[in-house]
């Protein structure tokens, strides 16, 4: 997929566990895992905003466009 | 769900009265037609009286019976889809394939019955009849096309559902 999710990198930088982030932003760990693995088809702005707030980062820190 | 249950009971009832008796009877009749004399037997299909007299008429009757088997099989597939509906597996691949298969079978059955109707009317009654309006053949063809469209619609819905499920 052209969009790469760097959520695991940000989690490592912030020294936060997936479970804690999932609890903070109010989604299940299964859904967070889908997002981390890049299997997600779309991300809601509300979810993205919640992730950015929890990790104190910008959307560009999490998402990256790569030309296939 | 209540309406699906009612439909399932209805389809089950039709299935019970046709499949256990109809299918073995047809399977027995197909070889029997070729080996026994059925000249005195009056068979009427789609308003045309069929007289079993020669090999050609026997083949026509066998194709009529085979066509009936196709309808019974499509009924079985529809029953299978309804079972999945009751399990709340609406957009399952089995349902989509069953609808597609049901559509194909009903369309084939409708086309076969139109051709057979014309041939048997020419052969047994020596006349060519053109029927206008809604008859059983057209209904079967229409139903077949409806199931084929339904299969495609369900395929689109399945894709939309998958995308929705993968939206975080």
Characterize the structure shown:
The complex is a heterodimer of chains A (68) and B (168). Chain A is built from five helices and two strands. With 68 residues, chain A is mainly alpha-helical. Chain A has a two-stranded antiparallel ribbon with strand order 1-2. With 168 residues, chain B is mainly α. Chain B has one domain. In chain B, α2 runs antiparallel to α3 and α3 (93-124) packs antiparallel against α4.
Any chance you could write out the topology, listing elements then pairs?
The complex is a heterodimer of chains A (68) and B (168).
Chain A: E1 3-5, H1 7-14, H2 18-25, H3 29-37, H4 45-55, H5 59-62, E2 63-65
Helix pairs in contact in A: 2-3
Chain B: H1 2-35, E1 43-45, E2 48-50, H2 55-86, H3 93-124, H4 136-165
Antiparallel strand pairs in B: 1-2
Largest interface: A-B, 12 and 5 residues
How many β strands of chain B by DSSP? 2
The CATH topology of chain A corresponds to 434 Repressor (Amino-terminal Domain)
How would the global form of chain B be characterised? elongated
Strand content of chain A: 5-15%
User: Which stretches of chain A are low in confidence, meaning pLDDT under 50 for 5 or more residues running?
Assistant: none
Biggest β-sheet description of chain B: 2 strands, antiparallel
Count of alpha/pi helices of chain A: 5
**CATH architecture level-2 label of chain A:** Orthogonal Bundle
Give me the count of strands of chain A. Answer: 2
What percentage of the residues of chain B does DSSP assign to strands (E)? Answer: under 5%
The CATH class of chain A is Mainly Alpha
Annotation field: number of helices of chain B: 4
Judged by helices, strands and strand pairing, the structural class of chain A is mainly alpha
Features of this protein?
heterodimer, A: 68 residues, mainly alpha, 434 Repressor (Amino-terminal Domain), two-stranded antiparallel ribbon, 2 strands, globular, B: 168 residues, two-stranded antiparallel sheet, 4 helices, 76% helix, elongated
